[in-house]
Amino acid sequence: MKTKPQIIFIDWNKTLSNSLFWEHLQDVNHRHNKYLNSIEKSMFQNNRNLINPWMRGLYTSEDIVEILSKDSGVPKEIILHELAESCYQMKYVSNDIPKLIKKIKSKGIKVVIATDNMDTFERFTIPSMEIGNLFDDFLISCKLKVLKEDIQEDSIPFFDNYLNKYNLSYQDAVLLDDCIDTTGVYNKLGFQIIEITSSNKLIEILKEYAS
């Protein structure tokens, strides 16, 4: 690990949380369990091409649900309600995360969630998990209209405005993420990415920053 950064960006999906959309419908006793296969097939097979545009803020959840309902035959009210419910029920990969984040922040290091995500994250997950005051801020692709992978030769638009706002450079930051940049641009610009391959790896890294 390099010298401790001034700011740590942490990815959400498959990094801080492994929770999935409509995951609770896997319960065979759930009254809407019978719709799960149809919803998942419509979202992740038939309309998979809408996922990135949704994360770019080009669609709202209601827009997506309308499309899924027409495709699957499942009532849109049910799809949206259960989508929201799954987002309300999201959890960290470890119960140790809040106390580690607080400890890292006590060292004077900013901790910000940086997620390629849909409007569901701000609408449902942040308030339900009460994490608004735990993290210093949230960078969400659907609000920024850009993904972390939308990089240019000498800039990373997803992060640029935020870093500039606090007079920080790429070298001042680190990103903890399950995905790494295969283009090499992050590395060239001095923006360190630590690949998170498991919840144990995440906790190990956070403990190092908290020490």
| Helix and strand pattern | EHHHHHEHEHHEHEH
Shape: globular
CATH architecture of the largest domain: 3-Layer(aba) Sandwich
Q: What is the CATH H-level superfamily of the largest domain?
A: HAD superfamily/HAD-like
What's the number of structural domains? Answer: 2
| N→C terminal distance | 13 Å
CATH topology of the largest domain: Rossmann fold
CATH class term of the largest domain:
Alpha Beta
The value of Rg in angstroms is 18 Å
Secondary structure: elements and pairs:
Elements: E1 7-10, H1 36-46, H2 51-55, H3 61-72, H4 76-88, H5 97-106, E2 110-115, H6 119-129, E3 137-140, H7 141-144, H8 157-165, E4 173-177, H9 185-188, E5 192-195, H10 199-210
Parallel strand pairs: 1-2, 1-4, 2-3, 4-5
Helix pairs in contact: 1-3, 3-4, 4-6, 5-10
Features:
alpha/beta; 2 domains; 211 residues; 5-stranded parallel beta sheet
If you had to describe this structure to a student in words, what would you say it looks like?
With 211 residues, the chain is α/β, with parallel strands linked by helices. The protein has 2 domains: 7-18 and 92-210, Rossmann fold (3-Layer(aba) Sandwich), CATH 3.40.50; 23-88, no CATH class. The protein has 10 helices and 5 strands, in the order E-H-H-H-H-H-E-H-E-H-H-E-H-E-H. The protein has helices at residues 36-46, 51-55, 61-72, 76-88, 97-106, 119-129, 141-144, 157-165, 185-188, 199-210; strands spanning 7-10, 110-115, 137-140, 173-177, 192-195. The chain has a 5-stranded parallel sheet with strand order 3-2-1-4-5, sandwiched between helices. The longest helix is centred in the middle third of the chain and has 13 residues, at 76-88.
